[in-house]
Amino acid sequence: MNSSSIGPAAKVLTFASNGCILYTIAVEENQMESRPNSVRLRPFRAFANTMYWENRREYEGYGQTPPYTFDEYWRDNRLLIINRYRKKEVDNSSK
Fold it and tell me: Which of 9, 43, 60, 95 is least surrounded by CB atoms within 10 angstroms?
């Protein structure tokens, strides 16, 4: 990323999973609070992220501490996430 293309108050965010860099973006300091709304994730990544947060909220709803990070959730549930995403895509294309 060209550092001259970002403002002085920008932060560079790198999204990685299992040591592989998925993408890097620059976000202005005033956007950091609302990052989930200002950063558009790719459809599959957004779907996986949504599944993680739904699972996390379920744990929190029962007063429990979520037992894992997103990377751990992805590692343990990768096939489930992929299969649900494919099913969702098939359901959406048949409408």
Answer: 95
Alpha helix positions (H), 1-69: 35-38, 43-61
Task: Look at residues 52, 47, 57, 85 and name the one whose alpha carbon lies nearest to residue 71.
Answer: 52
Interior/surface letters 8-39, b for 16+ CB within 10 angstroms, e for the rest: eebeeeeeeeeeeeeeebebeeeeeeeeeeee
> pTM of the predicted model, to two decimals?
0.54
Three-class secondary structure of residue 86 per DSSP: helix
Per-residue pLDDT reduced to its tens digit, 34-53? 445 555 668 899 999 999 99
Six token digits for residue 60: 């929190």
